[in-house]
Structure prediction request, 342 residues.
Amino acid sequence: MFDVIICGAGPAGSSLAYFLAKNNINVLLLDKFRFPRYKPCAGAFPVEMETFFDFPLKKVIEKTYSSMLFRKGEREFRLQLGFPLAYLVNRKHFDNLLIEKAIEKGCIFKDGTEVLKIKGERIITNSEEFRGTIIVGAGGGSSIVRRDGKRFKKIGMWLKTISADIPYQGFKDIIFDFSYTKSGYAWIFPKRDELSVGLGAPPCHLRDAGITFEKLLVDYAIPLPETIHRFTYPTFSSRELLTWKNTLLIGDAASLSDPSTGGGIYNAIRSAYLASKAIQLHLRKGIPLSYYQRLVNKYLFPKLTLSECLRRTFYSFPFTIQALRIGKPLLLKMTRPNPLKI
Ligand SMILES: Cc1cc2nc3c(=O)[nH]c(=O)nc-3n(C[C@H](O)[C@H](O)[C@H](O)COP(=O)(O)OP(=O)(O)OC[C@H]3O[C@@H](n4cnc5c(N)ncnc54)[C@H](O)[C@@H]3O)c2cc1C
Prediction:
């Protein structure tokens, strides 16, 4: 019997495993893939995220950026700062580092183990059955914990993406280009040896994703990739219930990706941090697990709600680049989240 079973070992699940294991909680982490595994993701997150960990992320950071270039048609705007703003990682290495650190602290990790069913404390997988006092859904948009928990809502908003990692140098800047889709953007993120290039938008605005993606590559004279990834994941749309009975949801399983930027890594880890606090209080002092909901209501939902309002306003405004220029102070505030200590 485990204290906690975490279903999914992306940044949400593996960081929760780390936070709990280092506090002597008996934790099992499961993932359906064998690790290290490829994950379609541009891999950008605010530098402040490092403050959640007491080990360096340096080993997996490929680039640090202190500027960003925004484009729409002929217009462009550069956000230039005198301090580091974002780190870029390759998710294969980043996710694996978090798992290694969790294992070092005593977490048991079983990869290649797909969770098929949850029945109270019982977790039925493709290989074995486990029992856990608390069950955490960290399986991203397809989270089985979310689907099996009858009280959890259906995901309200999805983001469709098409992307590729292309071994190509020749770009210095992080580029966001709003010319290719409504209510979304194209990105070009230069990493150590390759470019992450992609498009992301609500599915209704990215119907001809393949054709639009090819146009983006041709316009920027980027070689056509061998492999293209199509992936849809949830973003925040409204406040919702994230704990029910002995289960709770974190990261994309809880739809906590930022609706205006699409970034989900930071909130995945932030929600894991909040969940770790609530779980420890529950196991040690009997405080209801729903305390996690109160923490999310206080520390995550207000900013996500604001971000959703901004997304709606921003994309209905025809002068995208001018809006960014005027909104620079707000943009700075949004890209530099306050490190969380509770
Ligand atoms: C193309 C693209 C680009 C992106 N770029 C960025 C970016 O630059 N910055 C950013 O912050 N965010 C970005 N995101 C979003 C980011 O990838 C997600 O928000 C983040 O991965 C969420 O982490 P998570 O741990 O909640 O879920 P995930 O990373 O999706 O991890 C879930 C894990 O659960 C496992 N799993 C699922 N179901 C089961 C099951 N039944 N049994 C066992 N295991 C299971 C999966 O194998 C997976 O490993 C991007 C997303 C995409 C698609």
Q: What stands out?
A: Residues 7-13, 30-33, 39-45, 114-115, 138-140, 142, 144, 161, 163, 198, 231, 233, 251-253, 257, 262-266, 268 surround flavin-adenine dinucleotide (CB under 6 Å). DSSP finds nine helices and 18 strands in the chain. Residues 90 and 162 are 17 Å apart (CA to CA). The two ends are 29 Å apart (CA to CA).
